Fold this sequence. Notes:
Blueprint: H1 7-49, H2 52-64, E1 66-72, E2 75-80, H3 88-98, H4 102-110, H5 114-122, E3 126-128, H6 131-135, H7 142-149, H8 156-175, E4 179-187, E5 192-201, E6 207-215, E7 219-221, E8 224-226, H9 228-239, H10 244-260
Antiparallel strand pairs: 1-2, 1-4, 2-3, 4-5, 5-6, 7-8
Helix pairs in contact: 1-7, 2-9, 3-4
Amino acid sequence: MSFWNTKAFRISAIVVAALLTIFLIIGSIGYSKAGKFIKEFEEDFKRISETDQFKTRVTKLKHTNSVLLMMHEVFKFIWILDINKNDKTREKFIEAIKTKDSFKIFECLAELDRNKVVEAMDLSCLLAFDPEKISKLKPKFGFFATIGFLFRKRHPMKDIYKISEKIGIKLKDCEKSALILILFLDILDDKKIEISEFDYDTIKHNFDFSSDTFILNPLKRNDKTYISADFIIYLAEKAATGSEAIIEELKQNLILAIKENMPK
């Protein structure tokens, strides 16, 4: 009797068929659930990206390519820096980053004055933010959706959530310690950004540096293509808080706090 006609083969065939059926069911359910998350994201992105405020900030960011996120006990802000590629201030700041010179980094920030802070806020270039909003931006996908994403084309939604997760973890660490957290987001091109992180311990005066590069695949919808600058502003919009009290506190305390905590 050949193997193909044996009981062992029939049992094996049934087991394989059952496993394939289960796999197809899980894949089908997962594919559908992943699609729902993508649809919800795209609807939210569309809603935010159609606002005049979003468009203004994206235009500004595409000119400067730089965003600064800082967190301390007296301030939490995201700043679209007013320094373009040919600006000496930018050159000085980038050099301080590359050489990991904590004093020069704070020196660059301390050169700012309160009028510039207020002006930046009036131009929608300076936003107070809520750390919890960043930490909770990524939804809980669950088992099926996680499997479903394996069968779908890479979507920028996952790249955006990956960045928000990294930032969220750093913000939580900062809240638990006497740190000034500085994240410098530098847009390298339409698909790539570099995030340089600086942790300054205001008690021990220790300074740590690290950097990561992230790829953000473009999102094409209708006749519009959204790139890295659009996604960074989307993150900023999702994290921003409109509280007048917080914004006023930011205006009053930002420069003072930077100067008081400069490395000695």
